[in-house]
Design brief:
Elements (H helix, E strand, L loop, with lengths): L2 E4 L11 E4 L13 E2 L4 E4 L4 E5 L4 E2 L9 E6 L14 E11 L7 E8 L2 E6 L5 E5 L1 E2 L5 H6 L3 E9 L9 E20 L6 E12 L2 E4 L5 E4 L3 E10 L5 H11 L4 E4 L8 E10 L9 E7 L2
Protein name: Carbohydrate-binding protein
Length: 293
């Protein structure tokens, strides 16, 4: 079944929703009274973004002054909340965060995860789920013995009891390695219909080839984003509500769960083209999805 998951406000991204994190902030907080040398790095406690000084003897110049500072993106602790899937909050062995959503949340998605397993628990209800991230998908016996297992993927936790004031604890473990979370999405999911065969998944690549005057080609590699196409069976009598929901969700950043058994259909992005048929012939709704990097 296909389930859009609108992001639950900005409670986590704005700061108060994050109760604690095992990932330290290594950059010092910016101070208007301090003097920074060229190349010094600080973070802004108001936005959790890091900046690098462009000048020597940098005193009293706000981090928003682009003649004195250049932005570097979110701190490591906050990369999992910056809505960029391909950047990760990472730490040796494990990443653990405690979040208080402050609103109704029944689904949490962790995208671009590196680790052996992920666990989500809720303090008040006793809800706890652990998902195994280790995979060894192969086609032949040769591959079984010589292809290394993979410790990465996308994870969905659903059916979370709707305790608005309860803390959610998320842990990704990677014993002997580096644990990472690319994107953490919390929200209230809504099922709109049954995903039909055949759905397709691809990528939109932002890489480009560069050719010099001698014809030598160099690939300039950049990030890519998921693209998905679904055909959806809409229950008779539910068409107008699905139309209302999809229109409400159009031009809205959110996560989508296309088919629970296929993690390739978990994506953070937005609706592209879609249509909802009113039919008695079994015609399906067509939905195109574009992921964000």
């Amino acid at each position: 079944m296909i389930r859009p998951v609108p992001v639950a406000g900005d409670a986590v991204g704005a700061g108060p929703g994050l109760v604690s994190s095992s990932v330290p902030i290594n950059e010092p907080p910016y101070s208007g009274s301090a003097t920074y040398g060229k190349g010094a790095t600080v973070y802004d406690p108001a936005t959790f973004k890091t900046y690098q000084s462009l000048i020597a003897n940098n005193t009293g110049r706000a981090v928003t002054d682009d003649t004195a500072w250049t932005p570097l993106g979110a701190t490591n602790r906050w990369l999992m909340f910056d809505k960029a899937v391909n950047s990760q909050t990472s730490a040796p062995e494990a990443v653990t965060v405690v979040i208080r959503p402050g609103e109704l949340v029944n689904t949490v998605g962790l995208l671009n995860v590196s680790g052996a397993r992920a666990t989500l628990s809720q303090a008040d209800s006793g809800y706890s789920q652990t998902k195994n991230l280790q995979r060894h998908d192969v086609l032949t016996w040769y591959d079984w013995f010589y292809e290394e297992p993979i410790r990465e993927g996308d994870v969905i936790f659903d059916g979370i009891p709707p305790y608005i004031g309860s803390n959610l604890t998320i842990t990704v473990e990677s014993a002997g390695g580096t644990a990472g979370i690319g994107c953490c999405i919390l929200g209230k999911s809504r099922t709109i219909g049954q995903t039909a065969w055949d759905f397709t998944g691809g990528v939109l690549s932002y890489s480009s080839p560069s050719t010099d005057t001698f014809g030598n080609v160099t690939m300039v590699r950049r990030d890519n984003a998921k693209t998905l196409n679904f055909e959806i069976y809409i229950q008779a009598g539910f068409e107008s509500e699905v139309y209302r929901l999809l229109r409400q969700y159009t031009d809205v950043e959110m996560m989508i769960i296309g088919a629970e058994d296929y993690s390739m259909t978990y994506s953070y992005g937005f609706l592209a083209q879609w249509s909802v048929p009113v039919t008695n012939s079994g015609k399906t709704a067509h939905i195109e999805w574009k992921g964000l990097v």
